[in-house]
Amino acid sequence: MMDGFGHGWGMGWWWIIGILLLALIVWLIVRSANSRNTSTKEKSSLDILKDRYARGEIDKAEFEERRKDLM
Questions:
Q1: Which pLDDT score is estimated for 41?
Q2: Buried b or exposed e, range 15-40, using 16+ CB within 10 angstroms
Q3: Is 29 helix (H, G, I), strand (E, B) or coil?
Q4: Burial bucket for residue 70 (CB in 10 Å: 0-12, 13-18, 19+)
Q5: CA distance 49 to 54
Q6: Is residue 36 part of a domain?
Q7: In this structure, is residue 28 part of a structural domain?
Q8: Angle, nearest 10°, between helix axes 60-70 and 45-55?
Q9: Contact status, residue 70 vs residue 45, Cβ threshold 8 Å
Q10: 51 alpha-carbon distance from chain centroid
Q11: What distance in Å separates the CA atoms of residue 12 and residue 9, rounded to the nearest whole number?
């Protein structure tokens, strides 16, 4: 009779540990995703200008003109 009670109680603790472990993994994933997003927000104006030039949104003359304005 005591064997069944002790075994059931032990299994209950494993469920709690499993849920806590799952919550920790989800929290780490969300934290990692947020840290990547903040790094892109910290780009300088010159970096943004270079990206636009690389994508072909602006031509070389406009890039040079705006770069001079920034510097």
A1: 63
A2: eeeeeeeeeeeeeeeeeeeeeeeeee
A3: helix
A4: exposed
A5: 9
A6: no
A7: no
A8: 180
A9: yes
A10: 21
A11: 5
- The model's pLDDT over 21-39, given as tens digits with 9 standing for 90+, comes to 999 999 999 988 877 665 5
Q: What angle do CA 58, 60, 65 make, to 5 degrees?
A: 90
- Residue in the block written with tokens 């469920």: 15
| Cα distance between the two ends of the chain | 81
Range of the domain at 70: 43-71
pLDDT in tens, 36-47: 665 556 778 888
DSSP code of residue 44: -
Number of domains in the chain: 1
Verdict on whether the full-model pTM lies above 0.90: no
Residue 61 in domain: yes
Distance of CA 52 to the CA centre of its chain: 23
